[in-house]
Amino acid sequence: MLKFLKKLENLIWIPLLWLGQGMALAEGTGTNPDITKGLDTAVNEATLANKIVSISTKVGALIGAVAVGAFILGAFQVATAANEEARAQGKQKMMWALAGVAAVGLAVVIVSFWANTIKGQAGAAQ
């Protein structure tokens, strides 16, 4: 149980620390950063939004496939369990895999929403 809690702690703190660094960088400016700064060509916001949606969908599909594999592994463990403890571990794996699929799906929806919002604002400004 202690190993599980340690893994869960790492899964929570590592992304939060990563997000905190990004927020600290953006915090000092007071405005959104200029995404075209330093580029020789203009950046089309609609193209950028489409690229973001494409990348997030592909990453979400990859992580979702891993989560489905974990779910299948847990189901196999439940089906072949010799005792109640092994069956409980399999059920726990299945539950975490479903939570992972839900979290990844929600993340893809949120990223797509914001990317399409950027695309919509870009279309309205032109």
Automatic annotation (TrEMBL):
Sequence intervals crossing the membrane: 59-82, 94-115
Domain of life (superkingdom): Bacteria
Protein keywords: Membrane, Transmembrane, Transmembrane helix
Organism: Carboxydothermus ferrireducens DSM 11255
Stored InterPro entries: T4SS_pilin (IPR043993)
Name this protein carries in UniProt: TrbC/VIRB2 family protein
